[in-house]
Write a structure and sequence with these properties.
Blueprint: H1 2-10, H2 16-25, H3 38-54, H4 64-75, H5 78-92, H6 103-119, H7 121-129, H8 134-143, H9 152-165, H10 168-180, H11 182-187, H12 191-199, H13 209-219, H14 223-253, H15 266-276, H16 278-288
Helix pairs in contact: 2-3, 3-4, 3-5, 4-5, 6-7, 6-8, 6-14, 9-10, 10-13
């Protein structure tokens, strides 16, 4: 919007985090009469900026804009929205849940995938058949606490229970939401349409929110048991991340092409000489003639 552009121009020395926040301002509930207004955009910027400074380890993560935006809508004041955001991120969710790599949020999405595989085999097989990964589809539910996925009145009710029961409720709601849409999932047999359906489950089911919460609350998943699965998933993700970082570092430093003394390794020298050996090249040219 013009206001966001103006904010960027007025503050040329913005930090990288602040620049990302500004980019997301007009993407956050743009049609809402308050959050989409100049006053609301400024309020959202203040809340997200304050949280980034309050918790520099996390700073800002896309998805927090929807949490802060909905908190502003419901709680009316910037201070209340800020403290709600801080309380949830620091007291209810695992530490650094919204950090750069989202390891904890991804682990939670993997927990849902394992629960569906164990308890809802038919749904799991159907999604696997069409190569639709459950964890990728539900990740944004955890990152944005459903604020970008479900109707506002449904999310507010989820947040009420979240403050009362803790993070376990996110798993129960996620599981219940998938099971509630079982028929729609199993009847969709196009990979693209199925992925789109899974990513947008519940967006138009506001009238069923009480049923969803009733089913979620009735699940009563064992907290200790889910925590064990979470820790296993988290460890696997951390190992995968470490390997990825090491591979990237190797490529960046050129260790694939260089030996320990920063010179081409003897093995590569040998392969290189075989490829461009002048005598071999002359022989090939002669044969072609």
């Amino acid at each position: 919007s013009d206001l966001v552009l103006e904010m960027s121009k007025r503050h040329p020395k913005l930090t990288p985090t602040e620049r990302v926040i500004i980019k997301d301002l007009d993407r956050t509930y743009p049609e809402h009469p308050y959050i989409g207004s100049p006053r609301g955009i400024k309020a959202l910027a203040k809340v997200l900026g304050a949280f980034a400074r309050h918790n520099p380890t996390v700073g800002y993560c896309q998805g927090l804009n929807f949490v802060a935006g909905l908190a502003l809508i419901v709680m009316a004041t910037e201070e209340a929205a800020f403290w709600f955001l801080a309380a949830v991120c620091e007291n209810i969710l695992p530490a650094n849940y919204h950090d750069e790599h989202l390891i904890n949020a991804k682990a939670d999405s993997h927990v849902i995938q394992k629960l569906i595989m164990k308890r809802q085999g038919k749904i799991a097989k159907h999604l696997d058949r069409y190569a639709v990964p459950i964890d990728s589809c539900v990740l944004h539910w955890f990152v944005a606490l459903f604020a970008s996925s479900l109707p506002t009145h449904t999310v507010v009710r989820i947040w009420d229970l979240l403050l009362f029961r803790g993070r376990i409720l996110l798993h129960e709601v996620s599981y219940a939401l998938i099971v509630q849409n079982r028929k729609r999932i199993l009847s969709t047999k196009d990979p693209g349409m199925l992925f789109n359906l899974m990513s947008k489950l519940g967006e138009k089911d506001g009238a069923k929110d009480l049923e969803l919460l009733r089913k979620a609350s009735a699940l009563q998943f064992p907290i200790d048991g889910l925590q064990v699965i979470f820790e296993e998933c988290k460890e696997q993700l951390q190992v995968a991340l470490q390997k990825s970082q090491e591979s990237f570092k190797d490529c960046k430093e050129g260790s694939i092409w260089k030996g320990s003394n920063n010179k081409p390794s003897s093995e590569l020298k040998s392969r290189h000489s075989e490829v461009i050996d002048p005598k071999a090249e002359e022989t090939l040219i002669a044969q072609e003639k």
